[in-house]
Structure formats: C-alpha cells, structure tokens
Amino acid sequence: MRIPRWLPLAGALFALYIIWGSTYFVIRLGVESWPPLTMAGVRFLCAGLLLLSVLLARGHRLPPLREMRNAALVGLLLLAMGNGTVTVAEHQNVPSGIAAVMVATVPLFTLCFSRLFGIPTRALEWLGIGIGLVGIILLNSGGNLSGNRWGALMILVGSLSWAFGSVWGSRIALPSGLMAGAIEMLAAGVALLLVAFVSGERVTEPPTLQGILAVGYLALFGSIIAISAYMFLIRNVAPAIATSYAYVNPVVAVLLGTGFAGESLSGVEWLALAVILLAVLLVTLGKYLFPAPPVVKPCEGESR
Predict the structure, then answer these.
(1) Does residue 297 lie within any of the structural domains?
(2) Which of 101, 186, 201, 233 is most buried, by CB atoms within 10 Å?
(3) Which residues are within 8 A (CB) of 89 and not within 5 positions of it... i.e. 6 or more apart?
(4) What are the backbone dihedrals phi and psi of residue 238, each rounded to the nearest 5 degrees, phi first?
(5) Rounded to an integer, what distance in angstroms lies between the CA atom of residue 30 and that of residue 265?
(6) Is residue 203 part of a domain?
(7) Residue 47 · residue 219 · CB < 8 Å
C-alpha cells in the first residue's frame, strides 16, 4: 500500500503543533513531583542516550570532535538554558500557558541576533519586533507574571539564549541529521544535572507515576519525535511552514492549561497573547505575505 505524500507532512506538523505545544502543560505536571533542573536533566539525558544508541545501531558514526563540541555548545544554549529556565519558572508557579506565550517571542529575538550577524532585515520585520515588545510589556503589566518577576526574567533569558543559539548554530559546523540533536540533548542533560547537584537539588521522595510518565513523554515525544519532525520539515517545506509552530504552540499550551490545569488568563493576558502572535506572524510570514519589490539591475554595457 502506497503512503500518500501528504501523510508524513501532516504527521510532522501535528508533532510540532500539538506535541511541542503540549510540553508546557506536561512540564507543569512533572515539576509537581520532580525538582525542576533534575527533571529537565533526566529528560534530555534519556532522550540523548536513546537517540544516540539508535543512530549508532543503524551504522552512523560519531562526528569529528569539532562538530561534537559545537553541537554541545548549541545544546547548552537551546536546551539547557532555553528549556531549563522554562522548567524552573513553571516550578515557581508560572502558568504553562503564560510560559508558552513568553517563549513565542523567540522568533523576534532571533531576528535581532540575525541583524548582529549581518543578515539583512526589512522594516516590516522591525515592526513585528516593536509589536512583540508591546505584547511582552502587556504580559508583565498584570496577572500571573506581575507577581513573579523572577519567573518572567528566567523565561526571557531562556528565550534570548534559544534565539542566539539558533542563529549562531546556523553559521557553524554541526553534525549532520539527527546526530546533532542527540549530542545537543546529551550535553544539555549532563549540564542540567550538574547544576542541579551544585545548587542543592535532591530527590527526597520517588517521583509519582504522573511525574515518571511526564518525563517519559517529554523525552520520547517532546524531544526525539518532535525534533525528528522538525528536521523533516526544514528539509521538505518552506521555512515559514517549518517555523509556524511558534504561533501555534502558545494557543495549544493556553488551551491545555486553562482546560485541564485550572489556569486562568486575565483580559490583559489574552490581549498580550494576541499581540505577540501578531508580531510573530509578521516576522515569520511577512516576507511571504508582503514580498519586497524586485530590484532591477541594469545589464552590463547598458548606456547611461
């Protein structure tokens, strides 16, 4: 039986939209019985070991040392810092939906770092950044984050780290395919567990079944499957489609948080969600919705 060509694409988009969007809610469930850094470390260490074992069993070889080092550094920036701060913030009672809305600003920061690396940007994209900053101010002006400044700051730092790591990682030599993801997850897992130990985190009681299932879901679905889906999309579809999860994940996270975790958003926070999603839409899809006029260059030898 021949598989329809659209089926892998639909499955990959489902993984990014629903699975990645649900990880914020699952993190909230997990930190009820896990110390946050320990949980994040166990998640990425297990995911990295499993993925690396599968790749080696299928005949893949370890990449050169330089590429492994680069992947490890990217893993520290994206996963250890980017995801670790979200896990700690949710442990400090930042609602999972609000955390997802804050993380949705990553494409805005990515555009800023791209400019620092000499990648040109358009006025429409800077408009998106300005609108996004308004959304961040609204999100912190009242409601869940107004009384938890440290939580908001941690997620903001994590988003900046993820954005910088994404831009920097696109300009250095990394292992090919899923090997890069395996090494990134291993490095993040080891680093998070070391920080957890140094900071005094201890697992004083065995995690509940809910906590164990949460880590398993985050490691298998949120890490291995979702990362594989993302790698498939960036090879087979336009970048705008591959990165469209940035404005779908917050909606999924908010719906799960309000529907199943008893979270609630104020009117200002709903407005901030809409403003941030508009900003991300302008930044990610603006070049496709409003293409720049073509630049006509005179032919060589044309009289002036």
Answers:
(1) no
(2) 101
(3) 99, 148, 151, 152, 154, 155
(4) -65, 150
(5) 22
(6) yes
(7) yes
Give the distance, in angstroms, between the CA of residue 22 and the centroid of all CA atoms in the same chain: 12
- Around Cβ 89, how many Cβ atoms within 10 Å? 28
Six-digit token string for 59? 């005949």
pLDDT per residue of the chain (304 residues) written in tens, 0 to 9: 566 777 888 888 899 889 999 999 999 999 999 999 999 999 999 999 999 999 999 999 999 999 999 999 999 999 999 999 999 999 998 889 888 888 888 888 888 888 888 877 778 888 888 898 888 888 877 667 666 778 888 999 999 999 899 889 888 898 988 899 999 999 999 999 999 999 999 988 999 999 999 999 999 999 999 888 887 887 777 666 777 788 888 989 998 998 988 888 888 888 988 998 888 888 877 666 666 655 555 555 544 4
Burial-class residue 26 by CB neighbours within 10 Å (0-12, 13-18, 19+): buried
**Where would I find the H helices in the chain?**
6-14, 20-30, 36-57, 65-75, 84-91, 96-103, 106-116, 123-141, 149-169, 178-198, 209-217, 226-236, 239-242, 249-260, 267-289
- 165: containing domain: 6-288
Closest CA to 145 of 273, 246, 35: 273
Quote the CA–CA distance of 143 and 131 in Å, as a whole number: 20
Q: Classify residue 1: in a domain, yes or no.
A: no
Beta carbons of 278 and 131 less than 8 angstroms apart: yes
In a domain, 299, yes or no: no
Structure tokens at 27: 């993190």
